[in-house]
Specification:
183 residues, 4 helices, single chain, globular, alpha+beta, two-stranded antiparallel sheet, 8-stranded mixed β-sheet
């Protein structure tokens, strides 16, 4: 191999090594962000997955039945979340437009807080007419069950809920969620 060919191969290998290191660093950052959504006792053994191109990609395998996700797209200020098995099933049913199993309530943490375009419309992708700001939600725990949320006794149709106390998001729909602030 000539000296210039050797130099070219060395340069290519260096570029590949840098790309792999950047990809690894990027995945580590996504994993760290995802795990920040849950208490350490859950995050330590949780799977980390991200939604990309219409499918879920596992970044880290876990063994406790919880799946943490890094910030995604869609909400005005997306934040990480961590779901138990039934919570992931609820989330996937929402994504598919199907009805979550009412006999299997899901649970989730969002300890970095979260946001939503609307407290009434689970399909909202922008602010509803007349609404001046998106819904800011402090760090919270969620019960993902329309059956439980709709029967909670909390108001079901508040466009502007007091997010400093428990409230129902998407009340009266098949995607109703009970949100419980933790701080």
């Amino acid at each position: 191999m000539t000296r210039s060919a050797s130099a070219f191969v060395a340069l290519c290998l260096s570029v590949i090594a840098v790309q792999l290191k950047c990809q690894s660093s990027s995945h580590e950052r996504l994993i760290d962000q995802a795990l920040s959504a849950a208490p350490a006792g859950i995050a330590g053994e949780a799977t980390v997955s991200m939604h990309q191109g219409g499918k879920w990609i596992e970044l880290r395998h876990g063994n406790n039945g919880w799946t943490c996700t890094p910030p995604g797209k869609g909400d005005p200020q997306p934040e990480p979340a961590c779901f138990d098995t039934n919570g992931m099933a609820f989330l996937q049913a929402m994504e598919a437009g199907s009805t979550p199993d009412p006999a299997k309530p899901g649970y989730a943490y969002m300890l970095q807080g979260g946001s939503a375009w609307s407290n009434l419309d689970p399909d909202a992708t922008h602010l509803p007419p007349g609404q001046k700001d998106y819904i800011h939600i402090p760090p919270h725990f969620m019960i993902l069950s329309a059956k439980l949320a709709n029967a909670s006794g909390l108001p079901l149709h508040e466009a502007h809920p007091n997010t400093g106390q428990p409230f129902v998001m998407f009340g009266g729909t098949k995607y109703a969620i009970l949100i419980i602030p933790v701080k």
